[in-house]
Write the structure tokens for this entry.
Amino acid sequence: MKHQMRVFASFKINIYSPYFEHTLFYPTQPMAAPPGSALTPADVEELVRYAGQYHITIVPEQEAFGHLHQVLKYDLYQDLAETPHGQVLAPGQPGTLPLIKDWFRQIAQEFPSPFIHIGADETFDLGVGRTRTQVQAKGMGRSTWIFSSRFTMSWRPCIAACCFGEILAGPIRRLWPDCPRI
């Protein structure tokens, strides 16, 4: 990562966005990224300090909907998955929102960036397991929107809803016309 930042700085690039699925250690959720396989809070602190020397802002990207097989494969989290040990969180399951809120609360504390990238793509399994009834009743777009907006709106004013709407709602509307507008 440090090498990447030096290369970015040499090209006057001042944003670095590391991608996290299961590679950021959460002390309150240790199985989300087992020790020894993820950046610790101390690692993040050093990385942020290092980036500052090169005038680089770190904008962390944490997956919060799909791409979570490495987390959801553990029995501890299986009740949060759309399908048993799957890769997609099941909206509406008790514990789903508290889990990702906990992750993003820690990210906001560790990374001083004014931005956080909320990864919410590749939800291919949505509607085939625990949310089948909800998706059949409300549609794929509305179900996706409800889950994503519950999460982001609960963080107001930390996350600008207008930016979220522009970034996420546009592509969702093209794929699922029943997606509501903000």
In short: The mean pLDDT is 82. The chain has seven helices and five strands. The longest helix spans residues 96-110. Helices lie at 2-10, 41-53, 69-72, 96-110, 132-138, 140-153, 161-175.
